[in-house]
Amino acid sequence: MYTRKLHPGSEFPAIQVPRNDGETLTLGKPQGEHDWQLVVVYRGKHCPICTKFLNKLTEYRERFSAQGVDLVAVSADSQQQLNEHLESLDLNFPIAGGLTVEQMETLGLFISTPRSEKETDHDFPEPAFFIVNGEGKVQIEEVANAPFVRPDLDTLIGGIEFIRKPDNHYPIRGTRDYG
Fold first, then answer.
1. CATH code for the domain of 121
2. Nearest residue to 41 (alpha-carbon basis) of 13, 1, 62
3. Number of structural domains in the chain
């Protein structure tokens, strides 16, 4: 069984998902004055590692914002699960749910089936991170198959700070054509 992958430098797909407030959010479309977006895909309410990571990400929002990077988190959770999860989250960025299996496949995510009804009631994505640049292209990505793989946020924001400095002329990496 193989998954499709988004390739660095490719267009990030326009995927619409419902936010916790019922509004629609388009992934990869930065909000406000931001021109880049960090899309964090998380497993869902059932994952304590995800809850901890999302709360930690809140501490970095200002540093991302200073670099013109908008933050958004998305899962496959239902509106009810999303709202229940918000009770254990202290976020300062939008959160969305309702990611469909087809959308997960479009993003090239690893998808898991719950081990039991105690875990959750639907297939869910494993963690992934996509940094979408001002041209709507995948600048940086990390797709994991388990909840234990997460980027170090200091290293990630430091890398974005380096990339965003015009004098560094840092290209999108990993684009070598194997054809």
1. 3.40.30.10
2. 13
3. 1
pLDDT of residue 1: 56
Look up the domain containing 157 and give its range. Answer: 15-164
Arithmetic mean of pLDDT, 148-167: 95
- DSSP symbol at 19: B
Question: What stretches of 75-150 adopt beta strand conformation (E)?
Answer: 95-96, 111-112, 124-125, 128-132, 138-143
Strand pairing partners for 74?
41, 96
Please say if the pLDDT value at position 73 is more than 90. Answer: yes
Separation of alpha carbons 72 and 82, rounded Å: 14
User: Would 50 be classed as within a structural domain?
Assistant: yes
Pairing of strands 124-125, 15-18: unpaired
Q: Are 98 and 79 in contact (CB under 8 A)?
A: yes
Would residue 55 count as lying in a domain?
yes
